[in-house]
Amino acid sequence: MSSRNKRRSGGKIDRREIARSSQMRLINILENPSQFDEKIVRSSAQHLVKISQRHRLPIPSKARHLFCRRCLVPYRYGENVRVRILAGQRVVTCLECSSIRRYGGGPKHHRR
Ligand SMILES: [Zn+2]
User: Fold this and answer.
1) Element (H, E) at 67
2) Cα of 12 to ligand 1 centre, how many Å?
């Protein structure tokens, strides 16, 4: 009937809002790894994934390129990650777990 207003009694703070702000805090650490201890940076990536899964939030697109989605190691360009542009795609190779991820549309010659 009157479901247009999202007025709810109780005044619960939206948990996902909290989760989102923690995401932002963790992303800030991942974006400025030199300002933090390496242990903190590493655990930040793990926390970010955990929080996102628990609250069913997407990982913000700007954070997707900040760490390896497989072993959750923060990327340190020139150290543990290799980035190549290949046929219009960004190919990111994690040197820690040797997983390869491709970003971007790429060409349309997928057929062999
Ligand atoms: Zn990795």
Assistant:
1) none
2) 38
